[in-house]
Amino acid sequence: MTIAYLNGDFVPLTEARISPMDRGFLFGDGVYEVIPSYQGQFVALDYHLERLRNSLEGIDLAINQSDEQLVALLDELCRQNGSGDHGVYLQITRGVVEKRQHAFSAESTPTIFAYPFTIAPPSDGSPANAACFTAVTRTDKRWSRCDIKSTALLGNVLHMMEAVDDGAQEVLLFNQRDELTEAAACNVFIVDAGKILTPALDHHILPGVTRRLCLDLLAAHTNWSVEIRPVTRAEVRSAEEIWLSSSTKELAPVIQIDGQPVGSGQPGPLWSQAQRLFHLYRFNR
Ligand SMILES: Cc1ncc(COP(=O)(O)O)c(C=O)c1O
Question: Rounded to 5 degrees, what angle do the CA atoms 230, 232, 237 make?
Answer without folding.
Answer: 140
